[in-house]
């Protein structure tokens, strides 16, 4: 594994590609990810394929794996606690590494009661760190500057680099940690926009773009199969983008953004 593929998050060693199984990867694919050294797992209730291989991995070596999960809906303190305790029971573990409020402002709320419950769970040792995933960049910047958050999961890619202005300047001494997602902009960065005649990025280029930013601890990968997984992991051997590659990726990302249509099923786009 290259030095570029290895990093830390919240003081823990981590492969800089985090695995999620929300896009078709089966249980054998998750096991293969673990064999390749991936040890950050983003687990939601829809990612059924992760459960059994993750339980096996936790039973072998709990300290190696960093598990991030959270409630489907995080509007109430009770739902947050219930989600944490359910995850502990399902995985037969004493702690969850990161408990997140998902899609803050869409399916969860940052209120006195929800924040207090997150902090209480952290104080009790049932979770090691608290985080959010969020689409609202100005609000994320405010929370990065002043909140008890340990991590943020943010959209960041060549078509959506706005975190560089709105969020990253507010991060001090690596906290909150940053996990990026949608590296390929829902695959829109993998095909030429209208009028583009130059080269087109691979998924590997997209992951390297995100990971070339010093504020990004890791980025999530959601391969559909083992072949895609192995290609994504191997791509990091090329290291960070050089100046010419970065200029090309930014130009390409701007062209994709200008074409429009960058809206996912949640209605997020800009």
CATH topology, by name, is TIM Barrel
Question: What class would the helix/strand composition place it in?
Answer: alpha/beta
Largest sheet: 8 strands, parallel
> What is the string of helix and strand elements?
EEEHEHEHEHEHEHEHEHH
Number of strands: 10
Uncertain residue ranges: 264-269
Strand percentage, roughly? 15-25%
What spatial order of strands do you see in the largest sheet? 3-10-9-8-7-6-5-4
What is the C-level CATH assignment? Alpha Beta
Shape: globular
Number of helices: 9
CATH superfamily: NADP-dependent oxidoreductase domain
CATH architecture: Alpha-Beta Barrel
Total separate domains: 1
Can you give the helix content as a percent range?
Answer: 25-40%
Mean of all residue-level pLDDT scores: 93
User: Over all CA atoms, what is the radius of gyration?
Assistant: 18 Å
Terminal CA distance: 35 Å
If you had to describe this structure to a student in words, what would you say it looks like?
This protein has helices at 27-35, 51-61, 77-91, 112-124, 137-145, 163-166, 203-211, 226-235, 243-259, and strands at 6-9, 12-15, 17-19, 40-42, 66-69, 96-104, 127-134, 151-155, 177-181, 218-221. By secondary structure, it is an alpha/beta fold. It has one domain (3-257): TIM Barrel, CATH 3.20.20.100. α4 links the parallel β6 (96-104) and β7 (127-134). The longest helix is centred in the C-terminal third of the chain and has 17 residues, at 243-259. It is globular and about 55 Å long. Residues 264-269 have low confidence and may be disordered.
